UniProtKB/TrEMBL annotation:
Ranges where the Hydantoinase B/oxoprolinase domain occurs: 3-507
A cellular component term, taken from the record's GO annotations: cytosol
Biological processes, Gene Ontology terms: glutathione metabolic process
Annotated keywords: Hydrolase
InterPro entries, per the entry: Hydantoinase_B, Oxoprolinase-like
Pfam family, one: Hydantoinase_B
Protein name: Hydantoinase_b/oxoprolinase
EC number: 3.5.2.9
Domain of life: Archaea
GO molecular function, one term: 5-oxoprolinase (ATP-hydrolyzing) activity
Top-level taxonomy: Archaea, Methanobacteriati, Thermoplasmatota, Thermoplasmata, Thermoplasmatales
Length: 508
């Protein structure tokens, strides 16, 4: 029997789970932007197959699944057939509170066979700001409610949506996540009906082994050595350093972040799952061949991240921005190190997800809206960078303005490329985006973004891309805003967002 048949079937199960989730979700964030991910795990928590969805979710399953199973073992939680577990605890699941994770067992002949798992960014998970990504948070309790790994029940779901500001949308998204897991369970059982259980397990072992061998073969073509880089995030009043030593050899890759800044008291800390995700994404992107995304690929990567640092914080430090902004900077730092020996690595892309959270009251109900906005990609050794695109760790779609206007009290006044914002060079960086809107009612806005001070770097003589800029026009006055803030907008106030361009590559 060809193990690849079962391997491909399992990969398609993860993909189908994602399609189910997207099509049945209520929020534009999942339905339009596809801010979700799905995977199949063996009973020990190894990733067998993973759908190619959001990069920041992908590697985090490697850390999060193990943490969840460890938690279940320590707390004597045994999921029965038709039961599910839910959690959003970042220090366990591996991202941030907005990413709600559902995991369900698959039984065969009354014995646990494997798990299916998905996570999706729920627009609002409580806390003091709409959208829950709180720029002013000094601890995790100011970012929303924490759901420890717990069995799903009607009472648990009622408790959860009672703390989310838009319960109707939240309930629809949570139901979509549970339905996606049921789809996965159904498809796994169809494979079990068709093939012998041991054949499936052996095929999964072979799939993981094959992925590891492909990965090691790919990096064996890279020059062994130690490569250093550093980059910076923008704190409230200072710059936060990320420093990396990347060790490459034929046996694997080690990323040592020992020189990185200590944990901070604002929401830019990144839990270990996010850090691993960013590193693995960067390495996977640099490997120029098709490799199944599973535990085999992840096994070639080793992290050295001191506990209590920005990239491996201790509870209860806030982490919401770590998932969206710090993850981008980790990717930049790893890619910069790899540019020392790979000409194919591009200059820096926009380097921010440009997270916009809006909310308020409309027609007697609270609403919450979240979107990320693309920017310019960095130029490459043989071409200009792409303009107006999500890059690196975000990889979502833009929310269509027609959808946002139909469902929320906002009206868009511009959505176009920010011409000339890409860095110049032999090849130019891609241009960012200008996206502006006014609000019809009093609205609360929160923003967590970056690259407002430190420009996206160019490579080999190329110029950096332009910084991000946000203006608010209120009562006829135009005010330039920082990269991280919360503000109360009056009816007809306008917000103008200009995202960074990518860096240039090579001298003109």
């Amino acid at each position: 029997m060809n193990w690849e048949i079962i391997g491909k079937a399992t990969q398609f199960i993860a993909e189908e789970m994602g399609i189910s989730l997207k099509r049945s979700a209520l929020s534009p964030n999942i339905r339009e932007r596809m801010d979700h991910s799905c995977a199949v795990l063996d009973k020990d928590g190894r990733i067998v197959a993973q759908a190619e969805h959001i990069p920041v979710h992908l590697g985090s399953f490697k850390i999060g699944a193990k943490n969840i199973i460890d938690y279940m073992n320590e707390n004597n939680i045994i999921l029965k057939d038709n039961e599910m577990l839910v959690t959003n605890d970042p220090y366990i699941s591996g991202t941030h509170l907005n990413d709600v994770t559902f995991m369900a067992p698959v039984y065969n002949k009354n014995k646990l066979f494997c798990y299916v798992i998905n996570k999706a960014h729920n627009v609002d998970v409580g806390g003091p700001v709409f959208g829950s990504l709180n720029p002013g948070a000094v601890n995790i309790y100011q970012e929303g409610i924490i759901i420890p790994p717990v069995r799903v029940s009607g009472d648990i779901i009622k408790f959860i949506i009672s703390n989310f500001k838009d319960p109707d949308t939240a309930l629809g998204d949570l139901n979509a996540q549970m339905a996606a897991n049921r789809t996965g369970i159904k498809r796994i059982k169809e494979i079990l009906y068709k093939y012998n259980e041991n054949d499936i397990k052996n095929s999964w072992d072979e799939l993981i082994y094959h992925s590891r061998e492909l990965s090691l073969n790919a990096i064996s073509k890279w020059p062994s050595g130690e490569y250093e880089s550093e980059d910076f995030l923008e704190g409230n009043d200072d710059l936060i350093k990320l420093k990396l030593k990347l060790f490459i050899n034929k046996n694997g890759i080690k990323a040592d972040f020992s020189g990185t800044n200590k944990q901070v008291n604002y929401p830019l800390n990144a839990v270990l799952g996010v850090t691993f995700s960013s590193v693995s994404f960067s390495i996977r992107s640099a490997i120029n061949q098709e490799i199944p995304t599973n535990d085999g690929f992840y096994s070639i990567i080793d992290l050295m991240v001191p506990k209590g640092s920005l990239l491996n914080p201790e509870r209860p430090h806030p982490v919401s921005g770590g998932n969206v902004e710090t993850t981008q900077r980790v990717a930049d730092t790893v890619l910069l190190a790899m540019s020392r020996f790979l000409k194919e690595i591009p200059a820096a892309s926009s380097g921010t997800m440009m997270n916009i959270m809006l909310g308020g009251e409309n027609n007697g109900k609270y609403w919450s809206y979240y979107e990320t906005i693309g920017g310019g990609n960095g130029a490459r050794f043989n071409s200009n960078g792409e303009s107006g695109i999500h890059s690196n760790m975000t990889n979502t779609l833009n929310t269509p303005i027609e959808i946002a206007e139909r469902e929320y009290p906002v009206f868009f006044t511009a959505y176009k490329l920010r011409r000339g914002s890409g860095g110049s060079g032999h090849y130019n960086g891609g241009d960012g985006i200008i996206r502006s809107f006014y609000v019809k009612n009093q609205t609360y806005i929160s923003v967590i973004a970056d690259r407002f001070k430190v420009k996206p770097w160019g490579l080999h003589g190329g110029s950096p891309g332009k910084n991000g800029i946000i203006y608010i026009i209120s009562s006829g006055r135009k005010k330039r805003m920082p990269g991280k803030f919360s503000f109360k907008l009056k009816a007809n106030d306008e917000v103008i967002i200009k995202t960074p361009g990518g860096g240039g590559y090579g001298n003109r």
